[in-house]
Write a structure and sequence with these properties.
With about 350 residues, this protein is α/β, with parallel strands linked by helices. The chain contains 12 helices and 14 strands. It folds into 2 domains: about 5-90, no CATH class; about 95-335, no CATH class.
Length: about 350
């Protein structure tokens, strides 16, 4: 049983007795990176508590109060980092919050394909790579890559390069080719499902030909760096943890692109969905697209058409829940619906 209780700051009628000044909350893995919060250590009755403040209209307002449900003393906590204390009181660190997003998305996608009678392998091996999921049903199979991003975070060239790299690896796998030739299985499909903002097909440099026209790897990397610098400029200086997380994705986009980009032969036939369809039909459809990109709004509609209302709600909650909220309230993405 958890040994903590949550109290929303504005509705907390219990008296908070501070024992420290307000302290800026900083990222544990990046001590120089501040968050939007300050906090105070204190007590509520005989239990330790943390009160968090967020600046609104140039004033600090109470955002959240975490209170232990057991008697305790701050003297016993001096050897722990503030993030460890937050976790002790029922919160979580930003890395765990992002992992929870990913796990929630995996649960949603798994439930959709289980309803279609697919067997699911999590993180299958693909020549020293690990896509997030492998679906199989009879002779049909599909590798899926998941990206649990905030709704406004751009999903672009690096994420798609990762998926097409998986296609290239599978296409050159002699064991897989032998099974396909013998008629034991059909060639696998590859699918990207995410909660972010997919770049329109006609603005993606992988599909417009811009990338293929650049001959050297160094120049391709420079091109991606320039493109994502533009995304960074549009993002501006973040004022919250969600913004810093998105900034980090953009800043490292070129590294992911460098790791995964290839110009495979044969080239994949890529489809970016424009309307909701049965993904089962797409996987089974032969001589058609083998790499399938699904905009987040389309997948949300697919869930609704499949009568997966709870899954649709959780999918949209991943998109709209800031890391700050999730840090202090893990229940927001607690995918606990019974099977």
């Amino acid at each position: 049983m958890n040994n903590y209780t949550f109290y929303m700051g504005k509705s907390d009628s219990m008296r908070f007795r501070p024992v420290s000044k307000k302290i800026r909350l900083k990222m544990d893995n990046k001590p120089r990176t501040p968050t939007i919060f300050t906090y105070q250590k204190g007590y509520v009755k005989d239990k330790i508590a943390l009160r968090f403040f967020k600046k609104e209209n140039k004033q600090d307002t109470v955002f959240k109060t975490l209170i232990s449900s057991i008697k305790d003393s701050w003297k016993l906590k001096n050897d722990l980092s503030i993030w460890k204390i937050i976790c002790e009181l029922g919160g979580q660190d930003p890395e765990s919050a992002q992992k929870q997003r990913e796990e929630c998305l995996m649960q949603i996608v798994s439930r959709y394909f289980k309803k279609l009678s697919y067997e699911i392998e999590i993180e299958p091996s693909l020549n020293q790579n690990t896509p997030d999921m492998l679906l199989t049903k009879g002779k049909y199979s599909c590798y899926i890559e998941l990206k649990a991003y905030f709704s406004k975070t751009v999903v672009g060239e690096p994420e798609i390069a990762q998926l097409t790299k998986y296609f290239a690896i599978a296409s050159s796998d002699p064991e897989l080719s032998a099974k396909i030739t013998a008629g034991q299985i059909y060639p696998p499909k590859f699918m990207l499902i995410h909660t972010g903002n997919l770049i329109p097909f006609n603005k993606n440099s992988l599909f417009t030909g811009e990338i293929r026209e650049i001959q050297s790897e160094d120049n391709r990397i420079k091109f991606i760096k320039r493109k994502y610098r533009d995304h960074l400029k549009k993002l501006g200086r973040p004022n919250n943890m969600e913004g810093f997380d998105t900034r980090n994705i953009y800043y490292n986009a070129w590294r992911k692109f460098k790791k995964y980009y290839s110009d495979p032969d044969p080239k994949p036939n890529i489809l970016q969905l424009e309307k909701p369809v049965s993904l089962d039909e797409l996987i089974k459809k032969r001589n058609s697209s083998n790499v399938i990109l699904i905009p987040s709004e389309i997948f949300s509609q697919i869930l609704a058409l499949s009568n997966l209302k709870y899954e649709k709600k959780m999918f949209e909650r991943i998109q709209s829940t800031w890391i700050e909220r999730l840090i202090f309230d893990k229940s927001l993405l607690d995918f606990n619906r019974s099977s």
